Amino acid sequence: MAFRFRLHLILVAVFAVCAHAWAADPPASTEPVDETDSTIDVQDGVPPPAAAAPKAGAEINLDDVRRFTAVMSLVKQAYVEPVDDHQLMLAAIKGMLVGLDPHSEYLEADELDQLNEDTSGSYAGLGLEVTTVDGFLRVIAPIDETPAERAGIKAGDTILRIDNVLVQADNLGDAVDMLRGVAGSDVTLSILREGSREPQDFKLKREIIRVASVRGRLLEPGYAYLRVSQFQAETGSDLRKRIAYLQKENGKPLIGAVLDLRSNPGGLLNAAVEVSDLLLDAGGIVTTRGRIREAGMAFQATPGDALEGASLVVLIDRGSASAAEIVAGALKDNHRALLMGRRSFGKGSVQTVLNLDDRHALKLTTARYYTPSGVSIQAAGIQPDIELADLALSENEGDAFGRISERDLRNHLKGDAETPAGKSAGDAKSKPSAPTDYALNEALNALKAMALQQRRAAPPVPTAKENKG
Question: Which residue among the candidates 154, 317, 333, 349 is catalytic per the annotation?
Answer without folding.
Answer: 333
